[in-house]
Amino acid sequence: MTNLIEARGLSKSYGSYQALKSVDFSVARGKIVGLVGPNGAGKTTILKAILGLTSYEGELKVLGLEPDRQRHEIMQKVSFIADVAVLPRWLKVENALEFVTEVHPNFNLERAKYFLSKTNIPMKAKVKELSKGMVAQLHLALVMSIEAELLVLDEPTLGLDILFRKEFYNQLLTEFFDEGRSILVTTHQIEEIENLLTDLLFIRDGKIILDASMEEIADKYIEVMVSKENAEKAEALNPVMQRDVFGRKVYLFEGVSREELELLGELHSPSVADLFVAKMKEGK
Amino acid sequence: MNAYTVKSFQALVKREYWEHRGAMFITPMAMAAFFAGIMILGALTGDGLTVNEHKFSFLDHLPEAVEKFEGIDQEERSKGVQIGLYAPMVLFGFVMLIISLFYTLGSLYDERKDRSILFWKSLPISDTTTIASKFISVCILIPALYFVVIAAFQLFLLLFTTVGAWFGGSSGVTIWASSNLFGVLFNCLMSLIVASLWLAPIWAWLMFASSWAKKVAFLWGTLPIFLISIAEGWIFHSSNFIEMVGIRIASGFAILNSNMNNLLGGDMFDVPVWNWYQTFGNMEFWMGLFVSAVFLAGAIYTRRHRDES
């Protein structure tokens, strides 16, 4: 089984509002997939469906199991951080470790203790006595100590300062991620994780509008910095987006060959953020 | 049920204790400490009290009291001591039921309010195991913890009166011999548990309400009961439903204090009183457990399928 997640015709309606409109996608083992979209596009609905937290129509397999019926089995191999501040405030750090050890067959207590020993989190403290950054560190230490095959992160660093955010993803990459696992992550701070991602999923209005690996994106989407005199030539090639930088124009092209573009100016790979803006404006 | 389910279940019950230690254990401990403190303080300062210009001394009266006590017929004496030991159950039992009420109302609502449900749901624990652990917490864990405190307080009462007996010139052995201590302790434990099980349909209903309340779980838990009663009054001009609920609750108190009631001659309550073991022979007890199962199934379904956002 190479695909940890398989969705075919995945749909979800809230009354007459269609949050997901027959979505197809898959997440293969060993990938870090960024699920990116504006608020209300259906990101959280997809994650909730994968985690068995909401009902859905269509076909969805997570580790070969169906989340709406086999949630209990799935959660032994899947972990998630749904939000920064969901650890119960009354829970003591040492009790959190004890509890997860007892309820989770794939939890490695020694690992969790090792992660915590690198922080300033006191074992006797209650969650409510910790700073927001410490709570995130604690949650990450717990989650990274679960031998999960799939880790789902929904805005895991929201409200944390930049040092914590960097450290968060850094640790995730060095201490948790390997070829046997996959991570599915949504975040608004996309520029901070774009170097981490292997694959990208863009979602808009309940539809997937981009599903590609980072290599495919680098091949397909090229940014060219063009001097004023070449501007007309560039516009003739139908750029998907343009912006002005220091008196020069930057055009973003989709599916135009490198050879052709090299004649116009300096080539770059677009940032995910720029690509996102271009894709969100497309057809609007 | 595999080994992990059992282990998870134990961890979940422990979890309930961690979260509610204040209500489940600290509160009754503080009450017991308070009453014990007042009694000790009273004994230390009460001697030499002046009432209506008559100097009154407990110490002077103690030998007289001890003599009187030891002169009573053995059966009557034992009755008196046991009533004294059962008496704290009235207050501690009442507090326990109030605390159980708030515990069940918050049991499935608080985790949604503070969004910690997203953490609990990230662990491989089924909703059935979770809700079973909360139900067992209210029916067994809370009564057991209150029992520990009550037992400690009863021992204090015996020690306290023994010291009093010493000042009255007796060894105090008669008090212990008349106490039927192990019988009293066992009856207390069982009465606490059986009373809570008798009220199980109420706890299960409140847990169900707690699982779907959007706000103010207290209103969602109590309003339907009043609405049904009002509807019944309009349509049938009767009040069977609210009477049934009221009698159920009153009988819970009666079971809790049945031991003392029976020793006192059996007229403490307006409702029929069953001992804890007589309760098992009552059809209504088993029907209550059946109704509880239905409400709990509703709570499990709601927690499982509720869309958390």
Overview in brief:
Chain A is an alpha/beta fold and about 280 residues long. Helix content of chain A is about 30%, strand content about 30%.
How does this model look, in words?
The complex is a heterodimer of chains A (284) and B (309). Chain A is of the alpha/beta class and 284 residues long. In chain A, 31% of the residues lie in helices and 30% in strands. In chain A, the strands form 3 sheets. In chain A, strands 5-6-7-3-8-9 form a 6-stranded mixed sheet, sandwiched between helices. Chain A has a 4-stranded antiparallel sheet with strand order 11-12-10-13. The radius of gyration of chain A is 21 Å and the shape is globular. Chain B has one domain. Helix content of chain B is 80%, strand content 2%. Chain B has a two-stranded antiparallel sheet with strand order 1-2. In chain B, helix 4 runs parallel beside helix 10. Chain B starts with a helix and ends with a helix. The model of chain B has no long low-confidence stretch (mean pLDDT 89). The chains are: A alpha/beta (284), B mainly alpha (309). The interface between A and B is medium-sized, with 34 and 28 residues.
SSE run of chain A:
EEEHEHEHHHEHEEEHEHEEHEH
**Domains of chain B (count):** 1
User: What structural category characterises the helix and strand content of chain A?
Assistant: alpha/beta
- In round numbers, the mean pLDDT of chain B is 89
Percent helix of chain A, as a range, is 25-40%
Q: Which homologous superfamily in CATH is the superfamily of the largest domain in chain A?
A: P-loop containing nucleotide triphosphate hydrolases
Shape, principal axes of CA atoms of chain A: globular
The biggest sheet of chain B, with number of strands, parallel, antiparallel or mixed sense and barrel status, is:
2 strands, antiparallel
Oligomer: heterodimer
Number of strand elements of chain A:
13
